[in-house]
Design a protein that fits this description.
Largest sheet of chain A: 3 strands, antiparallel
Strand order of the largest sheet of chain A: 7-9-8
Oligomer: homodimer
Structural class of chain A: mainly alpha
Shape of chain A: globular
Chain lengths: 469, 469
């Protein structure tokens, strides 16, 4: 069992050492200068990368010892490797985010205090009318509640990896973890109005108040993001790669807003970046170990954690619709999977593609009909097969016996033929990138067909008095 | 292995059902009335009790399956029973505390909002000069940071129970978990002045600013409370019982303050009660299963979690010195243990008392000298033995061969003779109660010899303008 720890090579050691040194240097300049939080966040992300990389190397054997281990079914040797390494990333991430707490609020620290009261009351006394100097407790509250939600998700994810919670139960774990964030939204913001798309404004007016429906919507986002990443999984490196791509696109969208000087949503998008940069740090470290051929597995913890991070920044940053545009492959995969998930057609225990040991290539895995399917199912499958959206295997009478499992991964292999595992991941990540570009395009160009303004353009936005959605 | 789950008897089922019903009724009155948070807290504590009780019953086999199990060394059959059940309590507690978030702030909810901004800014607009209507974001921040610390402690505690972290490492886990709370203290309160005791005021003045020393002090409290409970353990039910007694005494102290109408520290002590009542709820449920003869073990998770709860309320409630007065047995046990903890005399792997299978009684366990001890150690042990504070076993030449392990539990058995396990627990819990009464007496009566006022008395306190310490 011993010897499963990955040694850190001299090259990596040198790189990590240099990286941490550079990050410490960056932090030093932050402390010397006017405390630019984004630079501090970048430095912490580098440190988080190094810490995660090393810990994943060092903890492999320990994880296997306590039972966090699994066999890679798509390899010839089916070696047992450590699992649930996402928990390491989650813990490192949370620690970095906790230490980072003071930085976004640094600029408010120079307020004179009279010594003895809390800052809020003191500031009120010395307030000179400039809103800038009021300590933004509501932002701090949002930050803390986001951390609480992510930490809850980490605990529940670890519990899931430990106890193998049943599928229909674990679907709702993210909803539990989202409670701190939703409660904080209720206490501190409470805006449940949404802007009505132009074609519907004649019937509904410009804005409509969804009331508790908006909370249901947010809970649905929180449930969807983690679970959709969790079900688009099964080939080496895919969970981490797709998360990295999504995080990168959200970050790009954030940068678009931040680059518009004086944009009212700057704070929300800075907030989003503070959460995403360290996430990219720990995820890249995990990717180095999880990429084909995987030396560790990420576990449900990582999928939940990653999805929850996106849900948190999307909800608290008020860009949940943009977020969904970056989840196009996941949404497709969910819809495509739904006949199996909801039991319309048989769903085997594992739906990951089948490894052909002779060719070394991945082939579509199959769902089997024990009894011949009823005619609507049969017709639907045959139609999909004609459209090239599923592969079916029939007997001599044309009765469907087997069909390729309804996941995006299998579909990819059905369309492009058997291929090596790393090529599958590469293809799907490429698809994610294409969809991301498309999503941002829709958000900032095509959305003008549906909404009266693109809130990225300050001149369109100002004076409307509408919330940034 | 199956069948280790404890069935819920009909009597218990009826009791729990009634309890939850009554609590739901209480919650209903809270929603109907003016939302008294203390009543809501009481109701949630009852629900937390019922939930913990049931989950501990139901999850026994699952916990054993994943390796959370241990043998009771002080029983004839040495049966394997589930361990780390404190994790269940911690998770239930955290969920209840998260759902409870809006209640303490309910009174601020009736503030008119203009719909579209956050409450803080809105309130400023409609503010009429009454401070009461300002949303207390700093209190909310304290609450959230306390939850973050407790949740971090739960994660690290579970990691400890899972991976058996080394003694010298795990000592500092609570310091890591305390970071959110300390950072929040830094951001939001930042008071590092302490009142100087009367005899020293001639030299130091009335107040002294400890600056970063105060943070070191708070971190020390956070390290001490969890670890001191963790090392006063080893007989069935002791960890939970002592925690319940300490929590009850802090709650009594809180009630003393709250009963003084208009006391400036009312909010801090209400805050403390909100954290302690659900803690008492989950702890009593755990106690029902952990009391002699134990059906489950609590794990390090519980000890850490309990200690951290006390540290959190003590630090954020600004009564850390009072807190230490309630930890007298733990402080004594720590000092008494220190020669073994710091390696002055040999320390065996386990120091829990020895179970004599023939008599069924607990006897002091022994540390052994492999080489004869050096003379200062020998003299010290013999002196302690004459004072009745340790039992020693010598050879014919008077060289100390063995000595009773230096824990309060062993000392109790040395003083009062071998006794059954439950009697040991009962005696030590009795001692904890006596010390608690003594501690509160010192705090509110004898402290007047050292400090210029007892801050419980409003007339002594008002006009001094001093922080509540």
């Amino acid at each position: 069992m011993a010897g499963s720890n990955t040694p850190i090579t001299a090259g990596w050691f040198f790189f990590l050492f240099t990286l941490v040194g550079a990050c410490c240097g960056l932090l030093y300049t932050v402390f010397q200068g006017d405390g630019e939080p984004l630079v501090a966040s970048l430095a912490f992300s580098g440190i988080a990368f190094a810490a995660s990389y090393c810990l994943i190397c060092w903890l492999g054997d320990e994880f296997k010892r306590v039972g966090f281990k699994g066999r890679d079914r798509s390899k010839l040797d089916r070696k047992e490797i450590p699992e649930t390494m996402g928990a390491v990333c989650a813990v490192v991430y949370l620690m970095v985010m906790i230490v980072f707490i003071p930085f976004p609020f640094y600029e408010y620290f120079y307020v004179q205090t009279s010594g003895g009261g809390n800052r809020d009351m003191t500031v009120e006394m010395v307030e000179t009318g400039r809103k800038l100097h009021r300590f933004p407790h509501n932002k701090l509250g949002e930050y803390l509640s986001a951390l609480l939600s992510l930490q809850s998700m980490a605990i529940l994810g670890i519990a899931d990896d430990l106890f193998d919670i049943r599928w229909r139960h674990k679907l709702f774990l993210p909803a539990i973890a989202a409670i701190p964030m939703l409660i904080m939204y209720y206490i501190d913001f409470g805006v449940t109005n949404i802007v009505v798309p132009l074609p519907l404004q004649a019937y509904l007016g410009e804005m409509v108040n969804l009331s508790w429906g908006y909370y249901a919507y947010m809970a649905a986002i929180a449930i969807f993001c983690p679970n959709s990443i969790n079900i688009l999984a099964g080939v080496n490196g895919l969970e981490v790669s797709q998360s990295i791509v999504i995080a990168a696109f959200i970050a790009i969208n954030d940068l678009l807003y931040i680059s518009v000087k004086g944009h009212p949503a700057t704070d929300s998008h800075l907030f989003s970046l503070y959460f995403l940069l360290p996430f990219l740090g720990v995820s890249l470290a995990l990717w180095c170990h999880n990429k084909y051929p995987s030396k560790v597995f990420v576990g449900d913890t990582y999928c939940y954690f990653a999805g929850m991070t996106f849900a948190v920044v999307g909800i608290l940053g008020h860009f949940s619709k943009t977020l969904l545009l970056l989840f196009i492959p996941q949404i497709f995969n969910f819809l495509y999977s739904s006949p199996q998930l909801f039991g319309l057609v048989p769903c085997p225990r594992h739906r990951l593609p089948h490894f052909n040991a002779r060719t070394g290539l991945m082939e579509p895995s199959r769902g089997q009909f024990i009894h011949p399917p009823r005619w609507p199912i049969s017709v639907a499958l045959k139609t999909l097969a004609k459209l090239g959206l599923v592969q079916i295997w029939t007997d001599d009478n044309g009765v469907v016996l087997e069909y390729s499992n309804l996941t995006l991964i299998n579909l990819w292999i059905v369309r492009f033929g058997p291929m090596r595992e790393d090529k599958v991941t590469l293809g799907l990540v490429g698809l994610q990138v294409v969809c991301g570009v498309l999503g941002l395009f829709i958000r900032h160009k095509a959305a003008l067909l549906l909404f009266p303004y693109d809130n990225l353009k300050l001149q369109d936005f100002e004076g409307l008095g509408l919330p940034v959605v």
